[in-house]
Design goal:
By secondary structure, the protein is an alpha+beta fold. The two termini are 45 Å apart.
């Protein structure tokens, strides 16, 4: 232990004697370790940490898979949930929920809040008990039961300042008197719903947009979670769900979800973040490459420094120091540098995390849980030890292995670099360039993929459109006629604002991920009924919606003010439906029907395909109904205007308040923001990989510059002799630059080979391009080659200024 202490004290003295070397090495390592620690903290919070529930490993998400397309994540019907709850033996308990927006009236201004309706056992499944008050009672879950609610801790503090008297207080929610019976713990969160719910209510069999007969015959709208019994595997639960599905089909064959949807179970954590895993692992690999380049740079610095210390090391050998003793001493300096770099890195990471938490809220689940905790610190410490050994071991062995006589002799002549050490330094540069090229190629592919994504036509023009989400409370708008009249009066008032060019209403906002599928029967096919007919996405829109969104009309007409309840039932379809069911024909005048009510609707128009889910999703089959004929209680007002957003929003708010002063309006976004949110995840990955590629480019250029500058310094005598023998500046320039560019080309060659193997791993993250894209590879090689040329040119210019008289005299 004493000898280790002596090694550390000596290492500190040596590093203090060379402050420039120490600062450069520590900052280089700090950048690499800090970036790795920051990304690992995100990976730890999102992928590695268990969900904040008791026995989280036993929690599962139960959804449905489309039997034909294998598309996953479909909601579950109330009827099928009841079958799972009553029949399952592998699940200890099950719970169901669905999100909604509720209207809270306190004072003069109504407020829209995220809420959730849950089943009686929902909180028991998660292992959560109210911090104050109680949970729901069985009688409160029954139809016509007492209106009660539980609230989140944040709502309790933000609206009532943590006042205990909230329990038992009556709040006006959606026009009803609702009694608060419980307050959830501060630690409770529900990341499966964004934004986090603030109001929780019972009775999942109440759904404003569905009639009771739809709810009781297989309409899908519920999220379902379950807790596995102790010792039961996920595979056993999945096998049982398959059996329950078979019984359901036999008993309820005519229900909407009996034939085409099958139950599927995945762990709750995988259902939340499973799709993010490839993206986060790519980021972790990318930042790991940056650290490798940083290690190579510091190793090169240590090799250069070891050359300058050859005489010192030789003297220590002469005084009896063994080779292992010298290696240990030099390694202690490397580890000390690494720990110092790690400390700087952790500080950088802690400063960066608050910014990371604010990146695209909702795009990365659990991102707000990112923090520097004991696990992250342990990772950083391990990283320090590993990197210290990686960049310190080879230089230490090189320095300690040199023969005593040779070291003393060369030290007396200026310590020229040995051929072996020079080759090692050159090899490190080649490795740096190769790794940098891999990163830059990956970044180029992601950038090109994102550019392809953003060039896609979404089917509308986003610029100049503001969106106003609306949710009509059932207490005041229970009847379809009331809903239709509200939308008519709303559009009449909003269109009176002079700055507004067009305005419309839609039941489902494009690119919001909100989907409503129904079974339908197109003319020319045999109708088989609910559960057997093909499915189609249904949107209810106002007549001016297509004008507001600038969705092109391809044939026929759009809806008019005469398309109202009591009028001839009409519909508009998109191009995908027209091409599939009436190829080579004009669909105008054809008919289709919703399989539930079988009302024959005449097709009066065909519009362009619109991206209603994500930009990179395939075009889906969609039809539009006039919202006046088939009203919908929740929708979005779309307003097109060139006016500034602040006064425009204020004017629209005023018109809504004139129509209904108790209707809350929140979540107002521009359509540009909606588009940006839909591509948030690929944008984040592209930006971070691009940043890391920039760091890699900078570090590799610094590494090349360092090697070439050191080489020029060591070869001053040779340069002087060449000049004395008649070599001109261009000859010296060509000699030095040629040496550096040979290393660069070797690195590019290795990098291309490695990239061809690794970029295949990016395939799932790319859109519109292949993993082997000549443009991305070529651009990366050109940019890297250009930076390397500059890094070689600067020391080469210095070499051309060598004065042979001065150099030869000093030698």
């Amino acid at each position: 232990m004493d000898s280790i202490g002596q090694d550390l004290k000596f290492a500190i003295r040596m590093l203090r004697k060379n402050p420039a070397f120490t600062v450069v090495a520590v900052l280089t390592l700090g950048l690499g370790i800090g970036a790795n620690t920051a990304i690992f903290s995100v990976v730890d919070a999102v992928l590695l940490q268990p969900l904040p529930y008791q026995g989280a490993a036993r929690l599962v998400q139960i959804s449905q898979t489309a039997a034909q397309t294998q598309a996953t994540g479909a909601a579950v019907s109330f009827t099928k949930y009841e079958q799972v709850r009553s029949q399952s033996q592998t699940l200890e308990s099950t719970g169901a929920y669905y999100p909604l927006t509720v209207s809270l009236v306190m004072g003069h201004e109504p407020e829209a809040l995220p809420g959730t309706r849950v089943s009686l056992d929902f909180f028991r499944v998660l292992g959560v008990m109210p911090a104050r008050g109680r949970s729901f009672l069985p009688e409160e879950e029954q139809p016509g039961g007492r209106d009660v609610a539980m609230v989140g801790d944040s709502f309790w503090h933000s609206h009532f300042g943590g006042d205990e008297s909230l329990l038992g207080r009556v709040l006006t929610i959606d026009g009803k008197d609702v009694t608060v019976v419980g307050i959830l713990p501060k630690s409770f969160s529900f990341p499966l719903q964004t934004p986090e719910p603030e109001i929780w209510m019972p009775r999942i069999d109440e759904y404003a947009s569905l009639r009771p007969e739809q709810i009781r015959s297989g309409a899908t709208y519920l999220g379902v979670i379950g807790r596995l019994r102790s010792g039961v595997t996920l595979l056993a639960a999945q096998a049982e769900l398959k059996t329950i599905d078979a019984r359901y089909r036999a008993q309820f064959g005519g229900f909407a979800d009996a034939t085409k949807l099958e139950l599927a179970a995945v762990s709750l954590q995988d259902s939340l973040v499973g799709t993010l895993r490839p993206s986060l692992l790519v980021l972790l690999a990318a930042v790991g490459f940056v650290l490798l380049i940083a290690c190579a740079n510091v190793a090169n610095l240590l090799l250069a420094r070891a050359t300058a210390r050859e005489r010192e090391i030789a003297v220590r050998k002469a005084l009896g120091a063994s080779r292992m003793r010298l290696v240990r001493q030099l390694l202690s300096e490397s580890l000390l540098l690494s720990v110092a770099g790690g400390t700087v890195g952790v500080i950088l990471c802690a400063a960066l995390i608050p910014t990371l938490r604010t990146i695209s809220p909702g795009a990365v689940p659990r991102l707000t849980e990112t923090r520097v905790d004991a696990g992250v610190l342990l990772f950083s410490l391990s990283l320090c030890i590993v990197t210290g050994i990686i960049f310190g071991l080879v230089p230490s062995l090189q320095a300690a292995r040199k023969e005593l006589q040779s070291s003393l002799k060369e030290g007396g002549r200026g310590s020229s670099e040995s051929g072996r050490r020079g080759r090692l330094r050159a090899g490190l540069v080649v490795a740096e360039v190769a790794v940098a090229l891999v990163l830059m190629t990956g970044a180029g592919l992601l950038i090109e993929s994102f550019a392809h994504l953003m060039r896609l036509d979404p089917g509308f023009t986003a610029k100049g459109v503001m969106t106003f989400p609306l949710s009509l409370p059932p207490a005041r708008y229970a009847q379809p006629a009331q809903q239709a009249e509200f939308y008519r009066l709303l559009l009449e008032k909003v269109k009176s604002i002079p700055q507004i060019q067009a305005a419309g209403v839609t039941s489902h906002l494009p690119l919001s991920g909100a989907l409503r599928f129904v079974f339908f029967c197109p003319q020319g096919t045999v109708c088989q009924g609910i559960g057997k007919d093909p499915t189609i996405a249904l949107r209810q829109v106002s007549p001016s919606y297509f004008d507001a969104m600038r969705t092109p009309l391809l044939r026929g007409r759009v809806f008019t003010e005469s398309d109202v309840a009591g009028g001839a039932p009409v519909a508009i379809i998109n191009q995908t439906v027209a091409s599939r069911y009436w190829p080579g024909q004009d669909p105008i005048g054809k008919h289709l029907a919703n399989s539930r009510d079988m009302v024959q609707r005449e097709i009066v128009g065909v519009v362009g395909d619109v991206k209603f889910n994500t930009l990179n999703a395939a075009n889906s089959e969609e039809m539009y109904f006039p919202i006046a004929q088939v009203p919908w209680p929740s929708g979005t007002l779309m307003v097109r205007s060139d006016a500034k957003s602040e006064p425009l929003v204020a004017a629209v708010r005023q018109k809504i308040a004139e129509l209904d002063p108790y209707l809350p309006v929140s979540g107002i976004l521009s359509m540009d923001d909606v588009v940006a949110a839909s591509v948030a995840q690929p944008r984040i990955v592209m930006q971070f990989v691009g940043i890391f590629a920039g760091f890699a480019l900078l570090l590799s250029a610094v590494g090349i510059y360092g090697v070439m500058a050191y080489s020029v310094n060591q070869r001053k005598q040779e340069m002087g002799i060449r000049v004395a023998l008649g070599a001109g500046p261009s000859d010296i320039l060509r000699l030095v630059v040629g040496q550096g560019m040979r290393l660069t080309l070797a690195g590019v060659g290795f990098g291309v080979a490695v990239s061809l193997l690794l970029t295949r791993l990016l395939a799932s993250l790319l859109f519109g391009i292949r993993g082997i894209d000549p443009a991305a590879f070529g651009a990366a090689a050109v940019v890297l080659g250009g930076s390397a040329l500059l890094a070689c040119y600067l020391p080469a210019r210095r070499a051309t200024r060598v004065d042979p008289v001065v150099v030869l005299r000093s030698e």
